[in-house]
């Protein structure tokens, strides 16, 4: 249930943003294995966990509609009246009549209805019922994941038998008839977003609202977060502000539309880039190879364009990648030669610093409709650093693909095979940036960027201390293989030190 906790935390944060509720009351005693730990959800206001108050927002989670209805009725009875704030009710299954009857009896009205694409206690996506654009959006986004089933996306809302391919639960947002809900970043007053993405893991307490227009295309999206994620959203705000001053990126980055900040929550609204997510690989070995090669070329070109565009803008307010390094790099490795190489690489990397995305993997990349370019989303890890940071993050993440970090790093940067391809991509990028370096300097630069990725947590999987240690160990093994067999840039049997 831990993953349910951090995703539902986004609902708690959103509840405080929707109204002036004094707190959030959580009622989830019917969820199996309940371990919601609501004390960790606080979004800058009091969080109520014992007896509900009329001026509080309410979140009810249940395994079925009957249980959800009973809990909703109990909350209203204990408070003595219907809550003044927003009331979220999430449950597993399809039937909604019981919940709606209780809402009518207690004087609550439905402000928005959603379908859950995962269990109601872990709603990865909530897709709004009714508006055609929400279902069309889901059908388009699901095409690569579900294949032929996605052709039913446009009617999934009307036919439960088809909808079961996509949805496993229901969610309704209730409130008094006179309750005014203020959706952060809303495209129209009182409107509800087409899709809610509830974050999990290290981004607990965050929700992304996707707004769609009448054509069915998502136009903007808003990230809402509590104080725990404030630094991430501020970093994205700074990065998007800098990107707005750059030329040469040809619409491949979002545009900042709005920034909102209150004591309890923050929200950033930006354009939603057109295109299709590249989460899924092409089906079949031939299709996968062709699509992957084309995508690699697009990513390499985009990384180069970002680095070149960064040269003409001020990056003073953006943190640097090497701020993640320990004070004494030597303490991270047993081999002093490796420590010296990393420090040397940092010096080389600072000669041409630029803005880097910081988390370049498939989940943050969309392919443009023409297939000839990509767009890159999610800039909350934006940093000042060397362009190789993004390139190597992409390469190693692509090669890992649910495999341990060590083999992925070895495949990417040892001699032959994938290592030779990566070496060619590195040389091409450095040449485009007018950085003709000696092999020793290239090796030092690559090692430094790998260490930064390990400590910064570039790939999403490297966010725990265990994974960071695994990354650093993989870098050390890579260094030993270079000493023994030579690197992709130069066969070598001697040590690192050059006269």
Automatic annotation (TrEMBL):
<dbReference type="InterPro" id="IPR002575">
    <property type="entry name" value="Aminoglycoside_PTrfase"/>
</dbReference>
<keyword id="KW-0808">Transferase</keyword>
<protein>
    <submittedName>
        <fullName>Phosphotransferase</fullName>
    </submittedName>
</protein>
<feature type="domain" description="Aminoglycoside phosphotransferase">
    <location>
        <begin position="203"/>
        <end position="412"/>
    </location>
</feature>
<dbReference type="Pfam" id="PF01636">
    <property type="entry name" value="APH"/>
</dbReference>
<dbReference type="GO" id="GO:0016740">
    <property type="term" value="F:transferase activity"/>
</dbReference>
<dbReference type="InterPro" id="IPR011009">
    <property type="entry name" value="Kinase-like_dom_sf"/>
</dbReference>
